[in-house]
């Protein structure tokens, strides 16, 4: 492919070109960076029609089959991360579009943000900051929840869930966990006790979600789980919004029953007038779990390798290997 056009999407922080060395690639390709979220599929299709290669940042911009069909020049999607729920892989394969991904990233950044949300909810940090910024003092800031001796319930004790468990133990919390495949022995090896899902929601002071989103886990936190939570308990989700029944969560939050720390949403970016934005018992962050310098440097370095390999006729880290047949 001679002098291909490359689109880098969703560079919200405007750091894509400074996160890795694009110089060699830029001498033999035309690179354009897009910084803003898209208004809709029509705008996206029109802007991306000239590009042969598209770089996707995780799951920021959905790529359904209907969009892929409107991009006749597209040959390669370089995807950051190792999996995605917002790209139609089958549609790409049917069109002969190669999807290359980045290698596994051992970062604990999302776990760290999860615990930051726990602390922000427990000590009402947004209200405290707003009070100080407004020239006030403690007025309007709720009483805090100390974490020591409280129960932290973790849904999903994988890489990130294990990291959050360690942080909870460091704060002298009692940590329990549940997932369908978690054994008591594996939980105990991390200093955690396995409980069933009903007990986890009914008895935990803090619940943090760390499951991958799949057909099996979508909506795994429903109305019954949310209503079982203690009055004043904290729910943290920096994993995927689809793990939780959205209308049920809105209802429970509006009732004031629980507090939530949320980094992920059904619609991203979150609409400006979304009711979550006005709730005093919600701490919101704009999907920042993986948004740290080290992770972006890792992602974009691998993306450049993926594009170089594809242009050399030897694609690597191919998510849809059937396309090579």
Which key features would you list for this structure?
alpha/beta; Rossmann fold; 5-stranded parallel β-sheet; 12 strands; 34% helix; globular
CATH hierarchy class name of the largest domain = Alpha Beta
Structural class: alpha/beta
CATH architecture of the largest domain: 3-Layer(aba) Sandwich
Terminal-residue CA separation: 19 Å
CATH superfamily assignment of the largest domain?
NAD(P)-binding Rossmann-like Domain
Stretches where pLDDT falls below 50 for ≥5 residues? none
Mass-distribution shape: globular
Q: H/E element string? A: EHHEHEHEHEHHEHEHEHEHEHEEH
The CATH topology of the largest domain corresponds to Rossmann fold
Describe this structure in words.
It is a single chain. By secondary structure, the chain is an alpha/beta fold. It is about 35% helix and about 15% strand. The protein is built from 13 helices and twelve strands. It has a seven-stranded parallel β-sheet, with helices on both faces. A five-stranded parallel β-sheet has the order 2-1-3-4-5, sandwiched between helices. Helix 6 packs across helix 8. It is globular, with a radius of gyration of 22 Å. About 35% of the residues are buried.
Summarize the structure.
The protein has 325 residues and is an alpha/beta fold. Strand 4, helix 5 and strand 5 form a beta-alpha-beta unit.
